[in-house]
From TrEMBL:
This is ABC transporter ATP-binding protein. The lineage of its organism: Bacteria, Bacillati, Actinomycetota, Actinomycetes, Micrococcales. Coiled coil: none annotated. Belongs to the ABC transporter superfamily. Keywords: ATP-binding, Nucleotide-binding, Transport. It comes from Arsenicicoccus piscis. Residues 20-267 form the ABC transporter domain. PANTHER family: D,D-DIPEPTIDE TRANSPORT ATP-BINDING PROTEIN DDPF-RELATED, TRANSPORT ATP-BINDING PROTEIN. InterPro entries: AAA+_ATPase, ABC_transp_ATP-bind, ABC_transporter-like_ATP-bd, ABC_transporter-like_CS, Oligopep_ABC_C, P-loop_NTPase. GO terms for molecular function: ATP binding. It holds the Pfam family oligo_HPY.
């Protein structure tokens, strides 16, 4: 899917060249046998997913838990291999080889849901943020870069000397964002980046993401089960269920005029989104 379709059916190709191209990707996970004579079950997490993300786009991926959102993101990031199908980033195939991953990490970084488990508790924050710079052998003054990144995410420079457990959940996610941005990627993948946070700090962290994506002109892919968060951040959305994309388009259009029954149910199930749409657009 390389273009969006509006309500009247006229194609509106997103601006910018393709940065991520996902082509008919399937991913089947094996499950161990249940008992000695039980059958080995398998789960089809992705069942023929195709998707193009264009330079500078902010794309949301929504769907219920287990629909395959994280698997798709991890395959794009080279962390999982597809069972079949292909992924290209800036025209180069993501193969999972060490050489390709080093190339990919300079261009594309991931922020995960749980900042506690993704930050090494034994490392100082400054070393955590500098880790990708060291790993990718990025030249330059790493200390200065760390200070710049801490400021960019709204943390004091002294944070570099402290450890992750000394920070709140929201601050830890700011640290994760700083680390992801350290090697100056052009693409940021975010997997439920605020879902593990207290409601009171979600908006602040989302604002940090939005501001940095705008300032640095990043391409953003934002996975969330929370439709209102995606509405806030992303101009285009794809809707997934059971390992497939069933609908895509500009976020406002998909939310106000969902075409697929699954999207209709998804939108109807979120009172805050339904209320906002009703008030703003007179859509019931
Ligand atoms: N490592 C794994 N081994 C076996 N099955 C897996 C594995 N990872 C995911 N799955 C299964 O694949 C399906 C898709 O999972 P995935 O995590 O991609 O969905 P999701 O939409 O991101 O859900 P959630 O938001 O709950 O993480 C689910 O049925 C899940 O149980």
């Amino acid at each position: 899917m390389s273009s969006t379709v509006d309500l009247q059916g006229s194609a509106q190709p997103p601006q910018g060249e393709p940065v991520i191209e996902v082509e008919d990707v399937r991913r089947v996970y094996g499950r161990p046998r249940s008992g000695l004579f039980g059958k080995a079950a398998s789960v089809t997490a992705l069942d023929g997913v195709s998707l193009t993300v264009h330079r500078g786009e902010k794309l949301g991926i929504v769907g219920e838990s287990g629909c395959g959102k994280s698997t798709l993101l991890r395959i794009v990031a080279g962390l999982h291999r597809p069972t079949s199908g292909r992924v290209r980033v800036e025209g180069r195939e993501v193969t999972g080889s060490d050489r390709d991953l080093a190339w990919l990490r300079r261009r594309l970084q991931v922020v995960f849901q749980d900042p506690m488990s993704s930050l090494d508790p034994r490392m100082r924050v400054g070393d955590i943020i500098a880790e990708p710079l060291v790993g990718l052998r990025v030249e330059g003054d790493h200390r200065a870069r760390v200070a710049e990144l801490l400021e960019a995410v709204g943390l004091d420079a002294e944070a570099a000397e402290r450890y992750p457990h000394m920070f709140s959940g929201g601050q830890r996610q700011r640290i994760s964002i700083a680390r992801a941005l350290a090697p100056r990627p052009q693409v940021l993948l975010a997997d439920e980046p605020v879902s593990a946070l207290d409601v009171s700090v979600r908006a602040q962290v989302l604002n940090v993401v939005e501001r940095l994506v705008a300032d640095l002109d990043l391409t953003l892919v934002f996975v969330s089960h929370d439709l209102s968060v995606v509405r806030h951040v992303c101009e285009r959305v794809v809707v997934m269920t059971r390992g497939r994309i069933v609908e895509e388009g500009p976020t406002e259009q998909v939310y106000t005029h969902p075409r697929h029954d699954y999207t209709k149910a998804l939108v109807a199930a979120v009172p805050s989104v339904r209320r906002a749409l009703t008030e703003e657009r007179g859509v019931g």
